[in-house]
């Protein structure tokens, strides 16, 4: 049999070369383990037994069979009776499971127990979905070469709603997506269900995600998707997701009662409007009985909202919440709101929502971006976390790398997210971390949620690059357990995605862990933010002061002049520090107590400011840029050494992208240094190369071919008839 | 070994289920043949020997090895010495080939000889590319279960330039594409070459195509792609295509000297403009030494052109031709021009180009759509074919089914193309078929060309549906030999794509062959045309009279009123018949001599007109609509019976699409009948069901989710910032 498999692999290498290792399999690759590991594991996985025939149990059984057959290199059969080495999966409805003394009380509604009983491995949940999550956890264990002989695992998710947010438009374009177009082919729905939908559900379920918002909260997609024809399309997708424990949500546009319903107003206090939302909710639940709810972007960046009628965010959210409540639906109301006002943009979200704390209905979650600005390479945590003790506050992370080099730059985001989740808000004294706000435990909230803006598209490797799969993976793992460690997650992902060989896993883990700081260094070191070029955001634009609104201008965020750089957000300035709890505010008010990596976020300092880490501010800033580029070069060298461990296709795309990242990092370094030097008039420190071109060159650069460039997504490409 | 393979296949079915038969392999599937065929073929394909190390010979060798190893179920080795059963591939530069008496004089520059000599199979060309084409032809032969024991084949392409035209924009959107977005990822070029590019080249080379126009001739893509950064991107693609004998072309915008060059005019007689094009051509050839040339859409549908400066199409084309001539480049100048003038739109192309006949430089080809209108389900051949004896006249077919149901409807287009190619222009007496115009033989033209507007995109199956792959395939085969038969091509494609089992091939061939007439029946029977809904073109709109211009209105093309229907294009009307040679004009002038399937194209007739095939015109029209729908239902039934022969994924997408086609065919039938009955006021013939809804219903329908719908591709989806 082994000979057969080897022959088959050799043959496949010839005949199916085009399909080999293109990244589609993600971390569910299930390629044969090393021989010794197979020999070790086989006695514990000789067959699979699953009572019950719910679609979820069948999905779990199918996944176990697919996974183990691949990993062990032979077809693992289904069993009808328990024998030594059988994997038994199910819930206590299965008597064989019920009679075991499993600690299921700790597994919650969606968690699982995995326990070795004799040579039987029991995978159990209180629900079918819990058992499914257990099956994926077990397969992760096998893939990461865990020992199977004495398992005793209990796991339950700490956060209630764990979801992807797709910024996918109904025409399949992606806002801030760098991986093709939306995998949701609305045109062909509901008539045809692409097989990829199931693989999407599998991948998400393997991480324990339990929700997906199918459409973009910006733009008319969020109205269109409420039309009956579209709800039927969403219902078809919901049918694919359901066995995998994933609920479908839709973004909705506040003005939908007008655009879809033909009403003359969308005033949330208007009885007709309120009735329209109730009727629409009833219609949706008729077609999608387990529909999750609505995601709303209102009164932000031109989107309509309750303030258009002199009403508050609470008025708007509660109207929808009332419509959804009878069906147990949820409103996710985005806290990302700001307007071109004299108030510091980073203060506006807190200012809007703080007075509304406690005014939201129980089925409303206020969903805030991790930082107070906009998914920058580094920001402090948003003061909304900890600031709203009487509001369920959800976390919104950005998996798609809008500000971190698109699909090209290798940036592992778990360290960023971990930094945020472990930040201490001090809202209820020390230990009041953002993670404890988000999981609801700090304020004993009935609801808790975490969302990631998806990086998934039609690219064969899903995310545009292989390493961006790690960000999808890491988001899902942190959603299940926000206390997980970035390093653990990276190792898990690498072992499943490539190989468990420590000669590969160790250096590449290290590379991943440092990659985010590297990007911060060459893009926005020392607490700088929003220094990117307009619209496309790929490359530097620190000189930009004409982006349409002051708060879209990089100069607004660096305030660099001949005297110094940075934004004074202490009490002598914008006083953003006042939005944080006292111990945090105190630290952020003092340059010496502010973490150096957030220094310029909170303080305007002279170029000569003596840095605690040595040198003055000017020198330190320039060194960070240079260091970032050097680190990318190191990543390139390191990856080249990994060639023996990686298949050709996945090796090459990563090598190519690292070369492109290097080029763009140099652009960031040189463009930024050229600009800041033009205002500081200071010489470059020794060892830092002068920019290759004058500042005018960097200013003149356009990237018309970068996703998100103006002109690229605009009307020149409209239909002309042919 | 066989046991090993079977085991491997079984295992693959479990482990790699997600990848199984998604259509990516096209007709180059190379799955194991039936056992008996393998036993029969193995002695003739035991090894592969190829002297020479040109990239093209290496590509041929690689393809033979990949293909035969897959087909024969064992790795076929490379040989270093000729033994019994070896396949010998190369050119006469290889002495072992030179000493054989092969009829290479008939193979031309790109053709091939395949000949059995003893047990050696010799595949030879006068060029490496000829040998490559031979390798693909040989693999086609093996896949279609041809006998290998006494091969004696010579083949050469009849048409010089055989190319795909991509209407792909530089932002990767497709104009009239229904298969995702462009496979050309301009953003990542030239830094990363997606492996799919090579598979694209392989597929095209397997058909003998030798050119590809990478970008859309409409819109700013055709200017952008002339910027230096973009030429470098095109050069990277050219590098992938080159070993496969495929030259890269670019669409160019006539105003590019202004948009890219910063000049104040694009007047083709302006010396600066002429110099700009020369310089641009020089630049391109520095980066792409074998660059093919330019495709131009000028003074058509709002595109800029020489007439903007009072110059002629010849002035414009010749300017570019002069720039390209030193490099042996070609200008493909589209004849698809019309303006909102009182003249019948179908006459305008001929009217424009007839006076210019003989005025184009030798490296200019005037490229005309097959019909005088616009890729309708049926049109007569364009009088441009045969009308320009002193001009190289190229054929433009549309592979993408803009007017034939997108990727959803199963419509095999070879019968349409065959109908056109076999049409007799009588330009030089009987036998002056369109095919003889296009291959250049009728008028002894130095250049000949055929182009197909591509249906390829990022959809995993390339074309959006499995059966649309057949249209790509058929186009390529007809480009090589326009005298090939639709049936032969369908059988070839089915055997390679699915199975050679006659219980599958025979009924499905029949289904394919009838499918185009079926679509004509439910869309535009009896010579009707342009009855589709505005913009998206998916569904009926015979009532539309407000599409912006008279010649965009379906009512302009049916002229239906209570007295009758059809357009009088005889001498008593628009006199379009006068553009054809006398015998053709005479036939088209007489309703009795006009083919019934073109009747209403040329004649306005009373509803009571007695049809030669029986009944009156009204009854016949209605019966055609009804018949079309019935035939789709038959296709559904037939496909269901094919389930045992087709893998699950490809079976299901086809079954789903047939169900959607049925629904849309009913819409065409009911909407068309409802409208025409509203003007004819006549009762429906017995047996034809009344439309399910009143006419107002069909008029009210919008398909905002159909590709090409207004609002779907327009600005509501522009960036909003997030």
Oligomer: homodimer
Spans of chain A of 5+ residues with little confidence (pLDDT < 50)? 1-19, 712-722
Largest interface: A-B, 90 and 91 residues
In the CATH hierarchy, the architecture of the largest domain in chain A is: Alpha-Beta Barrel
Distance between the amino and carboxyl termini of chain A: 58 Å
In total, the number of domains of chain A comes to 3
- Stated plainly, the CATH topology of the largest domain in chain A is called TIM Barrel
Q: How do the strands of the widest beta sheet of chain A line up side by side?
A: 6-7-8-9-10-11-12-13
CATH class of the largest domain in chain A: Alpha Beta
From the spread of the alpha carbons, the general shape of chain A counts as globular
Could you give a short account of the major beta sheet of chain A? 8 strands, parallel, barrel
Average pLDDT over all residues of chain A: 94
CATH homologous superfamily designation of the largest domain in chain A:
Glycosidases
Q: Which structural class do the helices and strands of chain A define?
A: alpha/beta
Proportion of strand residues of chain A? 5-15%
Discrete helix count of chain A: 24
Radius of gyration of chain A: 26 Å
Protein architecture, described:
2 copies of one chain form a homodimer. Chain A has about 725 residues and is of the alpha/beta class. The first copy, chain A, has 3 domains: about 25-155, 2-Layer Sandwich (Chitobiase, domain 2), CATH 3.30.379.10; about 160-485, Glycosidases (TIM Barrel); about 520-700, Alpha-d-glucuronidase, C-terminal Domain (Alpha-Beta Complex). Helices cover about 40% and strands about 10% of the residues of chain A. Chain A has helices at about 1-15, 35-40, 55-70, 95-100, 130-145, 195-205, 220-225, 230-240, 255-260, 270-285, 315-325, 345-355, 385, 415-420, 435-440, 470-480, 485-495, 500-525, 555-560, 580-590, 600, 615-640, 650-680, 695-700; strands spanning about 45-50, 85-90, 110-115, 120-125, 150-155, 160-165, 210-215, 245-250, 295, 330-335, 365-370, 395-400, 450-455, 565, 605. In chain A, the strands form 3 sheets. Chain A has an 8-stranded parallel β-barrel. In chain A, strand 10 (about 330-335), helix 12 (about 345-355) and strand 11 (about 365-370) form a beta-alpha-beta unit. In chain A, helix 3 (about 55-70) packs parallel to helix 5 (about 130-145) and helix 17 (about 485-495) crosses helix 18. The first copy, chain A, is globular. Chain A starts with a helix and ends in a 22-residue tail after the last helix. Residues about 1-20 and about 710-720 of chain A have low confidence and may be disordered. Chains A, B: Homodimer. Chains A, B: This is Xylan alpha-1,2-glucuronidase. Chains A, B: Keywords: Carbohydrate metabolism, Glycosidase, Hydrolase, Polysaccharide degradation, Signal, Xylan degradation.
